[in-house]
Amino acid sequence: xxxxxxxxxxxxxxxxxxxxxxxxxxxxxxxxxxxxxxxxxxxxxxxxxxxxxxxxxxxxxxxxxxxxxxxxxxxxxxxxxxxxxxxxxxxxxxxxxxxxxxxxxxxxxxxxxxxxxxxxxxxxxxxxxxxxxxxxxxxxxxxxxxxxxxxxxxxxxxxxxxxxxxxxxxxxxxxxx
Length: 177
Prior knowledge:
Elements: E1 19-25, E2 32-37, E3 49-56, H1 69-72, E4 76-80, H2 86-95, E5 100-104, E6 130-133, H3 135-148, E7 152-157
């Protein structure tokens, strides 16, 4: 299991590498999460954000107009897999000026299998990075936001997990690392 941060600001994140982010607020999900980049579309993730909003898209699938587009602008969108292609979702978030998007699997009990996000048949391009998140992680984040009546979580992304002692790693208790 690779616990190294596979992120280099000069070159960005590459396929089969992990990017870690930490939720700072709300406190009940203050954990470090793992995401993977899209295989063959999207921009390169090469920026560090110490505190940025992770906004749950409404509707969650983000296949068309968003009801909370004002919150997406200059933030990171949390989107759910399903109803349209990964690339189509990325276009919707880019059109609403999102910086990055994280697509959570719509299989809510998925806590170990990363989907390889690939280009659809349209040959469109997009400039923002797209990351994939396990379904259980996405579900727990959205559930916490709903419980607290919050439109977003505050996160730091990426987090260099190699500098954190193992006993201090705040891993989600539902995920095996």
